[in-house]
Each structure stands twice: as structure tokens, then as C-alpha cells.
Write a structure and sequence with these properties.
The structure holds two protein chains of two kinds. Chain A has twelve helices and eight strands. By secondary structure, chain A is α/β, with parallel strands linked by helices. Chain B has a seven-stranded mixed sheet with strand order 3-2-4-5-7-6-12, with helices on both faces. Chain B has a five-stranded mixed sheet with strand order 9-11-10-13-14, with helices on both faces. The chains are: A alpha/beta, B alpha/beta. The structure holds thiamine diphosphate and magnesium ion.
């Protein structure tokens, strides 16, 4: 025992070693907006569409998970389930030609920015009909014609690229802003520091957004990073915001104000959105690092359910309309599985395609 | 033909391309107000202003990534590294992103970017400032690597690099910036990427050497000439794509080959080209191919050790003597 007391401890102690039985909540959710859709400038159709998109992201991933478990496709599969209000509120707040770039937890982002369920599911299956022609898989959904620049698999690697998208917008004076989303784990990367410093120095119209879902794989935020994440902005003299990411209207309200300001002032912003991921980090995560009770507590704030209740409580729709929306989405998702299964894998020639825009060159190419 | 310094040839290339295309801009440490750490960008700030000639913080990872994002979103960045030894901090952007984005998005984006700066050693600068990175980057699919040795090649190839729709690494040398040479005055002078040049004709032995090593090969060739050995020097100019055909054609004539490479021996250009030669020209070889490289040792500071470490003309002559059985 004496020995144990003298033992050096580095990473703060987590669930396995908590002796007092008290568990710190991994993310404390700030309050949601009190405003209704109308005063936020959203129409009834807008909020109905928000619900449809959130339900689509949820069902798409639930079905994708089932297909993965059936062994229909391989690779990594990181589910966005629980975080759908962030993607949904954001796309409504941005102009359609504003740029979005994110990390590997990207299915939801793709679906809200115009990747069809067919294109998405086919990408998961590695089929030629996938949004990235089966070359990217789950982590590299993209639709650049819609200014969704994709998902990226190196934690923090796409942060300077997001700043670069904004740089090009400012250079070309095209009125577009760039938004760059990443996890709480990415906050610990040096690339964020370098990007924030340059973005503030060069006044880049970029919004850096941390989707703080409480965990970097199995390491709770308080065990991998010091202090409050949003306060990092202070060191760069950068404007910042912190808000609740379990409510699409709250995300919309805040992101709209931020996007307007970033566009007008050509200045960066650092945003921490608190949210929660309901599933494991990826499909192989036994989730020993959190309690069932914690998960259940956040499930009470489920963003999809919340939006549904809002539509019903505000009398915007009746249950019948909800059922209709859900039925259509469900069919679309089931059809996307058929589409993916019936689609062809890329032809062998495709191995060498899409490497170059200009003249191709492959060393020691003996085809 | 005009006689220009290497740095002036580079500057002309950058200037002409910036003049030609609004989307081209240059950024890096000390490129603007300081006029370039090695004066390659001298005068560009005055001509193009702060929007297109941009001083960066010492954030190789950050500004390289900004370059990649800007390239994806419609621009043609030239990213200057003070040396490629510092670009190691940006390797994630070059290797994981610039070279891979297009492929992993199924062709939905292009990355027309040039990363340029001095490569390899420049005298007694110690272990961290002396490494040749051309072979390392040549390993990665999707990247072109250019390492010219003379002002004319530098100008023509840099212009082609800036016009390339895909990422290019363009390598120079602190020790070559002052080197003078004839440079074509042809309007819009470009040299295609991936073409080697026979820079000295000879019938006895083929020596392959690029960048700074080309000049060492040249010295060795003049020495050997006195002994009646005629060296054919091939400057690949582009490490990737590598023009193996020109090398093989030369070997068919000389039947002997020495490769001079400023990289360490394991897996470098010399190793790769040596392999290709044995496969493509086996029946033409009268002696095993030899190579002159750095030893598998870090760069020392001390002058006598440094001289021992860096390949020189004497090493090239020894290798030529080996393949010609003159030892
Ligand atoms: C540079 C790098 N290091 C490690 C990994 C492995 N890895 C992938 S995701 C992840 C956790 C990141 O968590 P976070 O940024 O919070 O995003 P979340 O998964 O919660 O969305 C780790 C360690 C990686 N992909 N890249
Ligand atoms: Mg996280």
C-alpha cells in the first residue's frame, strides 16, 4: 500500500481505478436554446427536413452496423449516432457553397451534404457506385461538388487543410467560409495549434469546431486534455463559443451567428460543441471505459427524439406525418443496401485510376 | 542563352508563372520581407504584394496543410521550405494528404502544389540539416520528385512543376544557388518532367548522378579523361518519374554503370536504379553495377569526418575503376 501511494501517476485516473465510486461525467452539456424555429428564421418545412435528415443519418448507420456485423463489408466503421444534431444544425446554418471538412466519423456529414444513401452505402461496401468510387470507404466519404471535402483518417491531419480551404476562399474573395470539424482527441495535436495561430494571424474565414463527444477512443476528455477546450481560443486572441450539440436548433442558432460573423469579418472562430457518441469508437470497442448509466443519461437527450417531440409538441406535424417520413427513410435505407449489394466492385483497371489529374506515372509499371 | 545563377533561374520561373496565372502564389518562412532565406524570391514581394508572397510562421505542418487545402480549393501554391530537412515536420501533409487525397476521394479533388527548397547537405551543418530526401519522397505513389543540377534545368522544370496538376517536390541546394549557367531565353521555356539528359557523352562507363552529385560526377569525369577513360554522365533531373530508358540505352553502349546518390544506401535511388539495370540490361553488363552513396551514418560536424562522409570525386573515380577493372 505504501508503495502504491508512492507510485507515480501520469494520466489522470479513469473508470477502472476510481475508488470513491464517483464518476465524472465526461461532458457537461450546456443548456439548449429557448427559441422556437420561427424566431430563429426557420420555416416549418425546414424543421421537418431537419428531422428527416437526422432520422436518415440514424437509420443509415443502424443498418450499416447490422450489415457490418453480418460481415457484408470490412474496414473500420465509426458511427456518428448521437451526434446528428451537429451536422444537421450546421448545414442549415451554412450556405450551400460554404466548405465542410471533417474527420473519419463522416457518414452523417456526407448524408446532410448530399451524398445519397445509395452512394454512401455503396461506398461502405467498397463498390464502384460509392461516393468515392469505393476507393475511400467509411472514413473517406466526400462530395466535393457540394463543397463537402470529405472525411480524413489521420487525427488532426485535416485541420490545416480546413484552414487552407478558407485561405483559398479569402484569396479568391468568393464570399465562402470553411468549417473544419474534428474530435476532442484531435485537440491534442500540434496541427491544431499551428492552424489556429496562422488562421488568426492571417484572418482566415474558418470555423474550427471540436465535436467534444467525451471520448478519444476509450480515453475520457478530462484524461487526455487539460482545462476547458473552448478556452484554448484565448491564447490566440480568437473568438470562441461553447454550446450544446444534442439539439439541432441550438446548433443552428449558434452556427448561423458564427458563420455570419466569420463571413462578414473574415476572422476565424473556435467552437466547442458538446455532444455524445452512443456507440463504441468503432465496431470493435467493448466500451469498458464508461458505465451503462452514463450512456443512458445521455440517451435521454437524444437529438433525433428531441426533434421529433419538438415537431409534435409545437403542432407542426401529426404522428401520421412522422410515420410517413420514417417509412420513406426506412425504405430509402433498405433500398440502399440492395443497391450496394447489387452494385459491381470496381474493375481491376480502377486500381490505377484517380491517382493523377495530369499525366499518370507509375514507377516500374509492368502491366 | 543568358548566363544566370541557379537562384535567378528559379526566380524567373516563379515570376513568369505568377505573372501568367493569378492562382499561383508563394508562401514560406522568410520568402517575403526578408526576400528569401537564400534570395530565391528576391523582388517578388515588391512585384506581387502581400497577397501572393506570404511570410509564414515556423509551422511547416500548418502552412503545408494550408497549401494542400488551398490547392484542393482552386489555387496553385508554391510552398517553400527553408530546407527539406525541416519538411519532415510537414511529412503528414505531403505523404498522408497531398499524395493521397485525390485517390481516396475517388478522383473528386486535385492537389496542384509545389513543395520546394534546398535538399541534402550544405557543409558542416550537423546531423539534422544534412539529409537528402529525394529518394524518400520518391517512394510514395502520386508524388513527382525533381532534383536538378543546373540553372537551365531548374528553370524549365520548375515551370513545369508549377503547371503540374498534381503534387511535385522540387529540390535545390544551398550550395548550388550561386552556380552560374546558360539558361534558355526561349519564351515560355519548359522541360518535361521525367526526362533524363545525357550531359556528357562517353563510351567507357555510364555514371548516373543528379543534383549536387552531378557536379561531383563531372569532376570525376575530367580526371578520368586524363587517364583515357570516357565517362557518359546521365543526369536524371527527375527522380520520379525516373527515366530508366535513357540509362539503359547508355549502358547498352558502355556496358558499365556507376550510380552516385547523396542519400543513405538503404532503399535509395541508387538501390532502385541498380535493381532496374540488372533486370533490364543484365546481358549488357560487363561488371556489377557500383554505387557511391553516403554511408549509413548521420552527418558529422567535424570537417575531416564530414569530408569522409560526403561522396566526392575520388569515390566516383574508385567506383569507375572498379567497374572498368582498372584497380
Ligand atoms: C495521428 C493518429 N493517431 C492515432 C489514430 C488512431 N485513432 C483514430 S480515432 C482516435 C480517437 C480520436 O478521438 P476524437 O478525436 O475524440 O474523435 P471521435 O472518435 O470521438 O469522433 C484514435 C486514437 C489516428 N487515426 N491518427
Ligand atoms: Mg471524441
Amino acid at each position: 500500500m505504501a508503495n502504491k501511494e508512492q507510485e507515480a501517476i501520469f494520466t489522470p485516473i479513469g473508470l477502472n481505478n476510481s475508488e470513491n465510486g464517483k464518476i465524472d461525467k465526461s461532458v457537461k452539456l450546456p443548456p439548449v436554446t429557448k427559441k422556437k424555429h420561427k424566431s430563429l428564421g426557420l420555416s416549418e418545412d425546414d424543421v421537418i427536413e431537419m428531422y428527416r435528415l437526422m432520422y436518415l443519418q440514424r437509420r443509415f448507420e443502424e443498418r450499416a452496423m447490422q450489415m457490418y456485423q453480418k460481415g457484408k463489408f470490412g474496414g473500420f466503421l465509426h458511427l456518428y449516432i448521437g451526434q446528428e444534431a451537429v451536422s444537421t444544425g450546421t448545414v442549415f446554418a451554412l450556405n450551400d457553397d460554404d466548405d465542410i471538412i471533417t474527420a473519419y466519423r463522416d457518414h452523417g456529414w456526407g448524408l446532410v451534404r448530399g451524398i445519397t444513401p445509395n452512394e454512401g452505402m455503396a461506398e461502405l461496401y467498397g463498390k464502384a457506385t460509392g461516393c468515392s468510387k469505393g476507393k475511400g470507404g467509411s472514413m473517406h466519404f466526400a462530395k466535393t461538388e457540394n463543397h463537402f471535402w470529405g472525411g480524413y483518417g489521420i487525427v488532426g491531419g485535416h485541420i490545416p487543410i480546413g484552414a487552407g480551404l478558407a485561405f483559398a476562399n479569402k484569396y479568391q474573395d468568393n464570399g465562402r467560409i470553411a468549417t473544419c470539424f474534428f474530435g476532442d482527441g484531435a485537440v491534442d495535436q500540434g496541427s491544431l495549434h499551428e492552424s489556429m495561430n496562422i488562421a488568426q494571424l492571417w484572418k482566415l474565414p474558418v470555423v474550427f469546431v471540436v465535436e467534444n463527444n467525451g471520448y478519444s477512443m476509450g480515453t475520457a476528455a478530462r484524461r487526455h486534455t487539460v482545462g476547458e477546450i473552448h478556452e484554448r481560443a484565448k491564447g490566440y486572441g480568437m473568438k470562441s463559443a461553447l454550446f450544446n450539440g444534442m439539439d439541432a436548433l441550438t446548433v443552428y442558432e449558434n452556427m448561423k451567428n458564427i458563420a455570419d460573423e466569420v463571413r462578414k469579418e473574415s476572422l476565424p472562430y473556435f467552437v466547442e460543441i458538446r455532444t455524445y457518441r452512443y456507440r463504441g469508437h468503432s465496431m470493435s470497442d467493448p466500451q469498458k471505459y464508461r458505465t451503462k448509466e452514463e450512456l443512458q443519461e445521455y440517451q435521454k437527450t437524444d437529438p433525433v427524439e428531441r426533434m421529433k417531440s419538438y415537431l409534435l409538441d409545437e403542432g407542426i406535424v401529426k404522428q401520421k406525418k412522422i410515420d410517413e417520413i420514417e417509412e420513406v427513410v426506412e425504405k430509402e435505407v433498405m433500398d440502399s443496401i440492395d443497391f450496394a449489394e447489387e452494385s459491381s466492385f470496381p474493375e481491376p483497371e480502377a486500381l490505377y485510376e484517380d491517382m493523377f489529374t495530369g499525366t499518370s506515372h507509375f514507377h516500374d509499371d509492368r502491366r | 542563352m543568358a548566363v544566370l545563377q541557379f537562384r535567378e533561374a528559379l526566380m524567373q520561373a516563379i515570376d513568369e508563372e505568377m505573372d501568367r496565372d493569378e492562382k499561383v502564389f508563394i508562401m514560406g518562412e522568410e520568402v517575403a520581407e526578408y526576400n528569401g532565406a537564400y534570395k530565391v524570391t528576391e523582388g517578388l514581394l515588391d512585384k506581387y504584394g502581400f497577397r501572393r508572397v506570404i511570410d509564414t510562421p515556423i509551422s511547416e505542418l500548418g502552412f503545408s496543410g494550408i497549401g494542400v487545402g488551398a490547392a484542393m480549393n482552386g489555387l496553385r501554391p508554391i510552398v517553400e521550405f527553408m530546407t527539406f530537412n525541416f519538411a519532415v515536420l510537414a511529412a503528414d501533409q505531403i505523404i498522408n494528404h497531398a499524395s493521397k487525397v485525390r485517390y481516396m476521394l475517388g478522383g473528386q479533388a486535385s492537389v496542384p502544389i509545389v513543395f520546394r527548397g534546398p535538399n541534402a547537405s550544405a557543409g558542416q551543418l550537423g546531423a539534422t540539416h544534412s539529409v537528402a530526401y529525394d529518394s524518400m519522397y520518391a517512394h510514395f505513389p502520386g508524388l513527382s520528385v525533381i532534383y536538378p543540377s543546373e540553372p537551365d534545368d531548374a528553370k524549365g522544370l520548375l515551370k513545369s512543376a508549377i503547371r503540374s496538376d498534381d503534387p511535385v517536390l522540387f529540390m535545390e541546394s544551398e550550395q548550388m544557388y550561386g552556380l552560374k549557367g546558360e539558361v534558355s531565353e526561349a519564351e515560355d521555356y519548359t522541360i518535361p518532367i521525367g526526362k533524363a539528359k545525357v550531359k556528357r557523352e562517353g563510351s567507357d562507363v555510364t555514371v548516373v548522378a543528379s543534383g549536387k552529385m552531378y557536379h561531383i560526377a563531372k569532376q570525376a569525369a575530367s580526371e578520368l579523361e586524363k587517364d583515357g577513360v570516357e565517362v557518359e554522365i546521365i543526369d536524371p533531373r527527375t527522380i520520379k518519374p525516373f527515366d530508366i530508358e535513357t540509362v539503359v540505352n547508355s549502358i547498352k553502349k558502355t556496358n558499365r554503370c556507376v550510380i552516385v546518390d547523396e542519400a543513405h544506401p538503404f532503399g535509395g535511388m541508387a538501390a532502385e536504379v541498380g535493381f532496374l539495370i540488372q533486370r533490364e540490361a543484365f546481358d549488357y553488363l560487363d561488371a556489377p553495377v557500383q554505387r557511391v552513396t553516403l554511408p549509413d551514418v548521420n552527418a558529422p560536424f567535424s570537417k575531416p569526418l564530414f569530408d569522409l562522409w560526403l561522396p566526392d570525386a575520388k569515390n566516383v573515380i574508385e567506383a569507375v575503376n572498379t567497374v572498368t577493372y582498372r584497380k
